[in-house]
Amino acid sequence: MTNKKRMLVCTFVALAAGCFGAIAGGQISAWVHQQNCQQFQWGGKEICQAWAIPGALWQGSTTGFWVGEVVGALLAGLATQRRATDN
Length: 87
Prior knowledge:
By secondary structure, the protein is an all-alpha fold. The protein has one domain (3-81). 82% of the residues lie in helices and 0% in strands. The protein has two helices and no strands. It is rod-shaped, with a radius of gyration of 19 Å. Keywords: Signal. This is Lipoprotein.
């Protein structure tokens, strides 16, 4: 595999893994913050969710994107590396 093709494959896999990580991270973070809001009574739960969920989605998505991108690039690099028998 040429270096240009390898770079394209690694970039695509890294971005795809980053997008998946952003979705998963945002959902997990929102779920955790939603569970923390369950302790409030008399309408406080809705206020807590309205306040905490957008920030949780942003934070989880950002973290998930970067982690997914790094892991995806690492795995794609390992999968496309040249072996001694490929010369």
